[in-house]
Amino acid sequence: MIEIDWKTIRLQIIVVFVVLLILMVWYAVIRLEWQNPVVNLNMKYPAVGPEQKLSFSVSDTGIGLRKVWIGIIKDGRETVLSEKNYPPPGFFGGKAAHEDIVKLTIEPKKLNISDGDAVLRVEVRDFTWHGWLNGNKTLIEKEVKIDTVPPTITVLSKAHAVVQGGSCLAIYKLSKPCPVTGIYVGKNFFPGYAGYFKDPTTYLAFFAANYDQGHDTPLSVSVSDFGGNNSTVPLPGYVLKRAFKRDTINLSKSFMERKVAEFNVDMPKNVSVVEKFLKINSDLRKKNNDLFESAWKKTEKDMLWDGPFMRLARSANEASFADHRDYRYDGETIDKQVHLGVDLASVAHAPIKAANRGKVILSEFVGIYGNTVIIDHGFGVLSTYSHLNSFDVREGQTVAKGEIIGRTGSTGLAAGDHLHFGILVHNIFVNPSEWWDATWIKGNVLNKINAVKLMN
After folding, report:
1. Which of 251-265, 328-342, 344-358, 406-420 bottoms out in mean pLDDT, i.e. has the lowest?
2. Residue 432 in domain
3. For 98-114, what is the mean pLDDT?
4. In whole angstroms, what is the distance from residue 444 CA to residue 158 CA?
5. Quick one: average pLDDT of 381-390?
6. Which of 200, 221, 242 is the last residue of a domain?
7. In this structure, is residue 137 part of a structural domain?
8. Residue 227 burial (CB count, 10 A)
9. Does residue 73 sit in the same domain as residue 222?
10. Cβ atoms 412, 387 nearer than 8 A
11. Could you tell me if 190 and 251 lie in one domain?
């Protein structure tokens, strides 16, 4: 007869019970975790257009995601946009979905959702036992505007003829405020700005024709509203052809050796002075021009200037805007460039005055342009001052029209003491002579603004 060791059996049962109890407590702790799922829903604008793409992330660091539900509530009616259920985790949580990217396209008209105010709702739950076994819940509600109607554009200003390398102003009214609005000259975009006029839907935009854009370059007003609805209308106007001078720059051996040595050119030591010059005059010039052409991003949304711009006092014009230059060395043409400014020469180290009121957005050494100051005059209009011997202003400083900002010099790739003066409209260099001309300012800027003010 086999004797049963009840004491051992009871002990084993107790051990099994304790282990099961520990596992149950452990599993219950996991199932009862309190951390809510995370939803990263960032909309650029609180608006839903005719075909609104939505993408956001959801995550749960605990037991895992259970469900993502998305809907729109409009006029008391709930419309389900998307609903996704995730598989339950295994006992040890190995199959849990802890993160996901949710993507969908909202098309209000197909869903019979009318334009107007609505609420976008996102509900995410996990697999915990909270909420009567429904899990922890994260609820996101965003007030949005359903907008499927494109904005209308009414051009208010007249006369938009612009010469090659010239500037112009357009003023237009929209049926509603829009975050993206401006003028296209060919493929070049010039932002429009609200806030100058009392009517918040009246915009102005300074624009320009590049020196090489032809008569057939299309002009248009283009806008996009918060819902992504787009509208474009032709801007009455055209680009006028203008002849530019050709100029020959004869480079002496002494200039080449002296100036090239001033630049830290990343090239092998055994390359010729001509190769080094070409790298400076071409590659570095492009890099420097890119810096100038991106400076508009710091522009003030206000018109800081008043009246015609000032020219360097008692100065001679040594080079004109958009001169097409041939660089010759040792009897051969070694490079071709376009001069994007006006060279003005006076006495050595002549005082330079701010051409108009504005804010200094750059005062530093800029490659071939040497010591340079850039002044923002608002609404994308900038003036540039280069080859300075020294400058007396700092970035962020507001300067008055006529305030001394520096002295002329020959820093950078300059042969002699002079001021290289430039005007930028947005990211395009333009002919400064227009901005010096009081008659041009009155006819092309002030008269347009005053005419629109009378309409408001």
Report:
1. 251-265
2. no
3. 95
4. 9
5. 98
6. 242
7. yes
8. 26
9. no
10. yes
11. no
Whole-angstrom CA distances from 189 to 205, 219, 223 are 10, 10, 11
Judge if 95 and 126 occupy the same domain.
yes
pLDDT at 340 over 80: yes
Inside any domain, residue 298 = yes
Task: Single out the residue of 284, 237, 311, 295 nearest to residue 424, CA to CA.
Answer: 295
Which residues face 184 on adjacent strands? 189, 220
The number of residues in the chain equals 456
Strand pairing of 316-319 and 230-234?
unpaired
The whole-angstrom separation of Cα 425 and Cα 163 is 14
Instruction: For residue 36, give both structure tokens.
Output: 């809510």
C-alpha distances out from residue 224 to 54, 182, 221, 290, 346, Å: 18, 10, 11, 27, 48
Rounded Cα distance between 322 and 129, Å, is 74
Residues contacting residue 382 through CB under 8 Å, at least 6 positions apart: 295, 296, 299, 361, 374, 375, 376, 423, 424, 425
Residue 16 falls within a domain, yes or no? no
Whether 391 and 257 map to the same domain: the answer is yes
Return the closest-CA partner of residue 213 out of 259, 277, 164.
Answer: 164
| Whether pLDDT at 404 is above 60 | yes
**Residue 356 and residue 228 in one domain:** no
Among 242, 334, 235, 332, CA closest to 282: 334
* Residue 30 structure tokens: 């996991």
* Contact residues for 43 (Cβ-Cβ < 8 A; gap 6+): 54, 142, 144
What range does the domain containing 194 cover? 153-242
Residue 266 pLDDT grade (very low, low, confident, very high; cuts 50, 70, 90)? confident
